[in-house]
TrEMBL record:
This is Ycf48-like protein. InterPro entries: WD40/YVTN_repeat-like_dom_sf, Xyloglucanase_GH74. GO terms for biological process: xyloglucan metabolic process.
Length: 706
């Protein structure tokens, strides 16, 4: 408790140092290819069918006014872990969304949002207290709402969130009370992954409950009964209800392995025509596959029925080796393939494993699908598909405004003003050679596993090294000798490096020339003097992380670690700069003075520190300062980025702050910034008015500080 009391106090002190005044920055999307993150919901307005909302697991919400051709960000969330949308049946301006931080409502068609939690538990700084997957409108009374406690994404939360909760409001969401909880046999509330009212009925609701199957309430949500007769197992992922027949519904099942069996039983679609009392398989025409690997055995995560024609349904087999979208035109009695991974030209490598499906409520030919890396749209009933998160520009890509990247870094090539690289988790490498207008990855760039840092090893911009790895695993050192057009992976004992997949997280990298390169791997400092063919450890740490060179192509640099910040003049002997933050989690050099550095200690010792004239000075106490950038020409101009983890009701991250006086005073600068969890920020050395920052889930943004 004492630690979090300190957090609250330092956050308050942080706010009191902010200076009021005019907005200095206006952030806009960088338009790197989207999404790159997991999309959890798409909803087309029933009132205005060119208005579409899209949300992601930690991405926030995007709004399109032209059916996904372009997206703009929505604002106002406590945190950015998004569930499903529900449009008001009568008022086109009102729309609800479930989030891990509770229900939120928009009264302007999805542009701005307000948390609506009155009657739910107080906000928690430790966990998600009242996660909501979806808000439902009573079919006969739009003032009566039901909010269900769950997350179809199965988002993690510490503590004891109110999973399985059924919340009721009778005043349009102004106030809520707990109506019931769907529990397992041990009395524990269970995650509701999908729910819906039966058509035209205020008393009957259906719920898909993680691991427990289908539950039905016949008294408006007060009591619940499992109805799984005919289902082969209870691994349910989604449900869809007939828009006019209250007794007809469909469920999507994942795969399942019986006890003592070696193979998994494929999932499928099951249908009920008696309100869930009995179920039968609706899989005719599907090519289902069983293996001993759950990722390679047919499974279904989503099912959608067209509101304008309930005979039309769409689902998708999301097994990695399947990625097949199916359509039915006879209510699920038979299916035919409408898309696979070859059907869509897309920016990201993931297959067509679509976990979200939505129809235009007024036009069954308009279908949206989305999954772990992108969203697609069909305007002709599934005959053709288009990526609506990125668009092709010649042989490159450009985003449409909705990025889901969890950014790790942004780097400007110091020798080429038009060369920019953004790095992120998962499939997180994109480079632009036209100043950010279009983006590519390069041949041989392996997919996924995250990227953290890049170094430019020669003034011609041909030799580059990148660190690759995620969640503590080593993904190799990536090398290019042709300006990023092609890549090779350096890994394994033959190189003096960890093996691929070994628990040795790589992070930062710096080159003095194409031969001499340093990298932090598993908390140790590695060095090569032959262009990466052989590496050796030159310092054991502990937990060395970011390298900050005194200038590009320098043998002298600083490196942060658990014991503080070190300096080396030759890349071999490291000297600890005593008295600084322990641990130091980030370090950067003032471009105008190689003897002036800034360091952060994110969520540990906390704050922003400066080393100058042989001593440390603490400039700020905020625990959540994650990154700092110094203006290339004006040392008084500083930018700090704050970050927080996505596992409690409200974020402690406060976005971007600026100082024009060397850190004495600060002003927040979040106008246009969709997500306040900011992981990295950098000035453009060729155009110092330009700043790019990266967020934890909403990609990259660009602004000008004039």
């Amino acid at each position: 408790m004492r630690a979090w009391f300190i957090v609250l106090i330092t956050s308050f002190l942080y706010a009191t140092t902010m200076q009021s005044g005019k907005t200095l920055l206006r952030w806009q999307p960088l338009y790197e290819p989207g999404s790159g993150g997991w999309i959890t919901a798409i909803a087309v307005s029933p009132h205005e069918n060119r208005r579409v909302l899209m949300g992601g697991d930690m991405l926030g919400v995007g709004l399109s006014l032209n059916r996904g051709e372009r997206w703009e960000w929505a604002f106002g969330f406590l945190s950015w872990e998004i569930g499903e949308f529900t449009w008001h049946p009568q008022n086109p301006k009102i729309v609800w969304v479930g989030t891990m931080s509770g229900p939120h409502r928009s009264t302007d068609g999805g542009k701005t949002w307000t948390p609506m939690r009155n009657g739910m538990p107080p906000l928690s700084d430790w966990h998600y207290s009242a996660p909501i997957e979806k808000v439902l409108f009573d079919p006969n009374n739009p003032e009566r709402l039901i909010a269900v406690g769950g997350s179809q994404r199965r988002w993690h939360s510490p503590g004891e969130p109110l999973w399985g909760a059924i919340w009721e409001s009778t005043d349009g969401g102004q106030n809520w009370h707990l109506l019931s909880v769907i529990r397992d046999e041990q009395g524990k509330g269970r995650n509701i992954v999908a729910a819906a009212f039966a058509a035209r009925l205020s008393t009957r609701l259906y719920a898909a409950v993680d691991g427990l199957g289908v539950f039905v309430s016949e008294d408006g949500g007060k009591t619940w009964t499992p109805r799984n007769q005919g289902l082969p197992h209870t691994n349910v992922n989604d449900l869809a209800v007939h828009p006019t027949d209250p007794n007809t519904l469909w469920v999507a099942l994942g795969n399942w392995r019986p006890k003592s069996a070696t193979q998994f039983v494929p999932g499928g679609i099951y249908k009920s025509t008696d309100g869930g009392l009995s179920w039968y398989p609706a899989v005719k025409g599907m090519d289902l596959v069983a293996t001993d690997d759950p990722n390679l055995t047919s499974r279904f995560d989503a099912i959608a029925v067209a509101p304008s024609n309930p005979n039309i349904l769409v689902t998708c087999d999301t097994a990695w080796n399947r990625s097949i979208a199916y359509k039915s035109v006879d209510g699920g009695e038979s299916w035919f393939k409408i898309a696979d991974s070859n059907s869509v030209v897309r920016a990201y490598p993931a297959g067509l494993s679509m976990t979200v499906i939505a129809f235009d409520p007024r036009d069954a030919n308009v279908i949206f699908m989305a999954g772990s890396e992108y969203a697609v749209r069909s305007l002709d009933g599934g005959k053709t598909w288009q990526d609506v998160t990125a668009q092709q520009v010649d042989n490159s890509w450009r985003g449409r405004g909705f990025s889901g990247l969890c950014a790790t870094n942004v780097k400007f090539n110091p020798f080429n003003r038009r060369h920019i690289i953004v790095l992120a988790l998962d499939h997180g490498f994109w480079q632009s050679k036209d100043g950010g207008l279009s983006w590519t990855t390069g041949k041989g760039m392996p997919p996924w596993d995250g990227r953290h840092d890049v170094t430019f090893a020669d003034q011609q911009g041909q030799v580059m090294f990148v660190t690759r790895g995620q969640f503590g695993n080593f993904g190799g050192i990536l090398k290019s000798t042709d300006g990023g057009e092609t890549w090779t992976v350096l890994a394994g004992k033959s190189y003096g490096l960890p093996e691929l997949g070994e628990r040795q997280q790589p992070l930062s990298i710096h080159a003095a020339n194409p031969k001499t390169v340093w990298a932090t791997i598993g908390g140790k400092l590695y060095r090569t003097d032959d262009g990466g063919e052989s590496w050796r450890i030159v310092h054991d740490g502990p937990n060395l992380n970011w390298i900050a060179p005194t200038r590009p192509l320098s043998h002298s640099f600083y490196v942060a670690g658990d014991d503080g910040v070190y300096f080396t003049a030759d890349g071999t002997k490291l000297q600890l700069l005593e008295g600084g933050p322990k641990p130091a989690t980030f370090v950067t050099v003032d471009p105008t003075n190689p003897h002036r550095i800034y360091a952060a200690s994110w969520r540990r010792a906390g704050g922003l520190w400066r080393w100058e004239n042989g001593k440390w000075t603490k400039l700020h106490d905020n625990l959540f300062i994650h990154w700092v950038a110094v203006h290339p020409c004006n040392p008084l101009r500083l930018v700090i980025a704050t970050n927080d983890h996505p596992y409690h009701d409200r974020s402690f991250a406060t976005g971007i702050c600026l100082s024009s006086d060397g850190g004495r005073t600060w002003q927040q600068a979040n106008d246009g910034l969709a997500c306040l969890r900011v992981t990295c920020v950098a000035f453009n050395p060729h155009d110092p008015t330009q700043i790019i920052c990266g967020t934890l889930g909403s990609g990259f943004f660009v602004a000008r500080w004039r």
